[in-house]
Amino acid sequence: MPSALPLGDPAPADGVLPAQAAEGASSRKFSLYAHIPFCAVRCGYCDFNTYTATELGGGASQAAYAATAAHEVAFAARALEASGVPARPMDTVFFGGGTPTLLPAGDLTSILAAAVEQWGLADGAEVTTEANPDSVTRDSLQELADGGFTRVSFGMQSAVPHVLKVLDRTHEPARVPQAIEWAREAGLKVSVDLIYGTPGESEADWETSVRTALGYEPDHISAYALIIEEGTKLAGQIRRGLVPPIDDDDHATKYMLADELITAAGLGWYEVSNWARTPEDACQHNLAYWRGDDWWGIGPGAHSHVGGVRWWNVKHPTAYAQRLDRGESPAAGRETLDAQTREVERIMLTARLAEGIEVASLPPAGRSAVAGLIAQELVDVRLAFAGRLVLTLKGRLLADAVVRQLLAD
Ligand SMILES: C[S@@+](CC[C@H](N)C(=O)[O-])C[C@H]1O[C@@H](n2cnc3c(N)ncnc32)[C@H](O)[C@@H]1O
Ligand code: SF4
Questions:
Q1: pTM
Q2: Which of 5, 381, 393, 396 has fewest C-beta within 10 Å?
Q3: Residue 2 confidence (pLDDT)
Q4: Does the CB atom of residue 43 touch ligand 2 within 6 A?
Q5: What is the 3-state secondary structure (H, E, C) of the chain?
Q6: CATH number, domain containing residue 142
Q7: Of the candidates 290, 324, 349, which is a domain's last residue?
Q8: How far is the CA of 364 from the centre of ligand 2 (A)?
Q9: Residue 360 sits in which domain range?
Q10: Do 283 and 361 belong to one domain?
Q11: What is residue 1's predicted lDDT score, i.e. its pLDDT?
Q12: CA of 166 to the centre of ligand 2 (A)
């Protein structure tokens, strides 16, 4: 079951943004997110806005989706122009899901081509798609690369069959190295996603998963603590005692093990859950989110942000397609963030980055928290004295607590 959308102000049918969106836009970067809301099966832990064929029902067709998404691209270009936001070439593009690679590669490249036609791509732009290892072939990956994709992020999650089973993953572990090899042959950069803390996963299981992933020599690794999302099948299994609950201490131990192994293999952390082989291999699209750049999110349930104006689309693919067919904005609601809220968000997001936060940019309450953070060994003492707050390993484990201290009144 996908999670609920936020409340907010109504969004106008013509998609025109409040004046604030255009202020200073020409000096900000621009990215595109394309949400592909389809999966072959729903994994028991996942509450992303995605639909299997049975969940979708009548009215919304996967086959028509690329054309519908291209309509939103054209709508976006018109709405930005009418809002006085200058067109900028896209620095990053990210196709996420759902399972983008459930659609034919030609559908993904046609959505990308529609966006490139509107905005163009900046030099060296990063163009990523998420992919499940069992929904790609050598040919489909080549077609993606030929159509302009530069990077693929595979949902590996674990290398251990009993862990994959609890997560409801459908792929055979051996499928992952095969898919990575094909991606490399096609010239694509490769990232893998791992999940730790799955019920029943031992420390040895997690070590096996991390070592196996590192053996594939990816350019990038994301490792996420399993979140038990309300309303998911896994949450129900835990509530009924069919599967053991998750444990924060187990998460911390596994995070430290992952960091040790991944760092020893030559990748460096650049955000709490993300490691890259070189600084250029860091996911530029996610960095754009964390740095507060502009992005348009196309697709059902997709979120967008331009100059402190944030909006989100209706969630169901049928309602989404109907809005665009009527020539109306698919936005379900929006909010215009004031300067103080934007500042709070900047601190929440950049505190988690290895580039850290400049102490001088913090509000007085944040600056007065610095001595305590140093004493608790949550930030690097040397960098803090040089004017920059960067989390230590202990600080990364307690990143939310660090943010609370920085924002405390
Ligand atoms: C929405 S998925 C899309 C990619 C692709 N469908 C897949 O599953 O591999 C992106 C990533 O989110 C992570 N994810 C999804 N649900 C999660 C949860 N409940 N806890 C932690 N990570 C989660 C998984 O690692 C997944 O690879
Ligand atoms: S394949 Fe990915 S998006 Fe689809 S249900 Fe599983 S985790 Fe969620």
A1: 0.96
A2: 381
A3: 63
A4: yes
A5: CCCCCCCCECCCCCCCCCHHHHCCHHHCCEEEEEEECECCCCCCCCCCCCECHHHHCCCCCHHHHHHHHHHHHHHHHHHHHHCCCCCCCEEEEEEEECCHHHCCHHHHHHHHHHHHHHHCEEEEEEEEEEECHHHCCHHHHHHHHHCCCCEEEEEEECCCHHHHHHCCCCCCCCHHHHHHHHHHHCCCEEEEEEEECCCCCCHHHHHHHHHHHHHCCCCEEEEEECCCCCCCHHHHHHHCCCCCCCCHHHHHHHHHHHHHHHHHCCCEEEECCEEECCHHHCCHHHHHHHCCCEEEEECCCCEEEECCEEEEECCCHHHHHHHHHCCCCCEEEEEECCHHHHHHHHHHHHCCECCCEEHHHCCHHHHHHHHHHHHCCCECHHHHHCCEECECHHHHHCHHHHHHHHHCC
A6: 3.80.30.20
A7: 290
A8: 42
A9: 338-409
A10: no
A11: 54
A12: 14
